[in-house]
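thread: overnight batch results

M.L. [08:02]
morning all. the overnight job finished for the chain we discussed friday. pasting input first so we're all looking at the same thing
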Amino acid sequence: SEKMVFEKPIIVDARGHLMGRLASTVAKQMLQGQSVVVVRCEGLEVSGMPIRNKIKFMFFLRKRTLTNPKKGPIHYKSPSRMFWRTVRGMLPHKTERGTAALQRLKVFEGIPAPYDRM
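M.L. [08:03]
and the structure it wrote out:
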C-alpha cells in the first residue's frame, strides 16, 4: 500500500465546533497521513449542561496515582492541550503508526504568526 503524500497541512478554525466531533475528524485525517493544524481551540464547545460538564471534569482531575501523584495521569487545563488529549484518545498512540499520526497534529489557542495569513 502506497502512502499518500500531502504538501500542505489542513488548517482548522475550531471556534464553534463540538470537541469530540472535530477530534474524530482530525484523528481520521491524521491516520491517513495528513498534517492538521487546529487554531482557536479556546472557542471549542462541549455539548451538555455546563454544571454537569464541570462536575465530570472535576472527577477526572481527581484521578491520579496513589503512590506518587506526580507520576500519575497528567490533566491538562489549557483548551489546546485538552483537545490534543482528546485526539490522542482516538488514535492508537502506543504504536508506531499512531505516534507518527499524533506528531502531525499542531494545536494552538489564538492564531499564531505563520497560520494567520493562510
